[in-house]
Amino acid sequence: MSPQTTHQHYRDVNSASSSPTSQRLRQLTKQHFVAELSQCLFDFVIQLLPTQEELAVKEDVRKLLERLIRTIEPDSRLLSFGSTANGFSLRNSDMDLCCLIDSEERLAASDLVTMLGDLLERETKFHVKPLPHARIPIVKLSLDPSPGLPLGIACDIGFENRLALENTRLLMCYAMIDPTRVRTMVLFLKVWSKRRKINSPYKGTLSSYGYVLLVIYFLVHVKNPPVLPNLQQMPPLRPIPKEETHMGGHNTWFFDDIDLLRQRWHSENSETVAELLIDFFRYFSRDFVYNGGVASIRAGLLKKESKGWQNEVSASRYDARERNRLCIEDPFETDYNVARCVTKDGLYTIRGEFMRASRVLATRPERAILALADLCDERKDEDLVTAPLFYAPSRQVPPQTPYSVGSRYMNQDPHYRVNKYLFARRRNIWLQNEVSGLVRHLLKHLPQTIHYMRVNWGWGWS
Ligand code: ATP
Ligand code: MG
Fold first, then answer.
1. Quick one: fold of 178-228+267-410?
2. pLDDT digit string (tens) for 355-364?
3. Nearest ligand atom owner, CA of 211
4. Where in the numbering of this chain does the Poly(A) RNA polymerase mitochondrial-like central palm domain appear (predicted)?
5. pTM here?
């Protein structure tokens, strides 16, 4: 073939691949993939919801603990918050309990923790760990497995944490507005973040609460048209005195009449849960401004400077414990960064995982279930990925990403230019490992995964 013919052939092939027919085909494949992925996501999270039996046992445990606490503080109530109360609970989630004491004369939280710890140790089979001197004094409890709770139970009891009860109610209201899309997305992200080992504030990554806030921020402020309204900015139906909308100096007002809201407000966004998820991963991989941005479900994207949360690059450039790498404003305690425990390596790992997820979804395998299995493939390494030292934190973009190549931010960064070669090499090695790991994984686990899903989830395969 002469060079001219080769060139012509190349042009023919290229123009054929972008012809209206092939574009239409690609579009159809994409539509098919997202439709199938939405169904898979939905079926997947349903399998992971707590059973009625588990919920009943947990309620019995709450009542038992309440009875015992009342022997110390007769005017107390023990209330659930967190996932047990907001609709984002997975099978075997921990129980977050808050003790409220409706009397002026009450014991100090640290004394209560000590006394309650002693009492529970004497009267119950719980393993008890009182933490009276923690920043927020709590009693930690755990129970060994039993027929009703094959994996046991873990529970924290805190005191007078009224803001936590309110933010639980706020999240529950968001879940109720569009349960199919919001709950599916949140529950999936919780499973995904646990399987990928990036859901542990003690190790420098983000709590479930933080991930839920990211999802709501995305659905209220990033998606256009929005999937959810901003409940904290909706005006009340009648004037409400300040005492009723404020708690300890924090404005806790939000529109909570969800039945009425559902009659009056409808989202114009009709994207499927899979489309939203794909966009969520893309947004937090490459578009969110980690350097200077604060995700606020109350007020949208804020600047770190406006809150005094900018990280001090010169003072603690390589300090892995540095605060405010990732900034998520608490909906009511607006001077509190929910992601303050996320370290430099933690953020680097989390972003790497967002990017990995984006890549997995972009490959659009023939069966959406394969993408799902790959997304939630358990990360074997318990440790965080170490962020390279040569990144200036303000320009930090992990190497494991197709998006970072030649990106606007990177090209402006002198550290990037100096280390361009090293950077490209690391990325290539990482990509090679990823691809061969993926192929190995699929070859090794595919038959078992298909068999498991057929047998346990009754999935029909043609
Ligand atoms: P899981 O099912 O994984 O336990 P969850 O929905 O219960 O998830 P948690 O992260 O356990 O979420 O948080 C439970 C509650 O604790 C939240 O509703 C919030 O009130 C409070 N909380 C958790 N993490 C933080 C944090 N970093 N800052 C402030 N409050 C938090
Ligand atoms: Mg919890």
1. Poly(a)-polymerase, middle domain (1.10.1410)
2. 999 999 999 8
3. 1
4. 38-175
5. 0.81
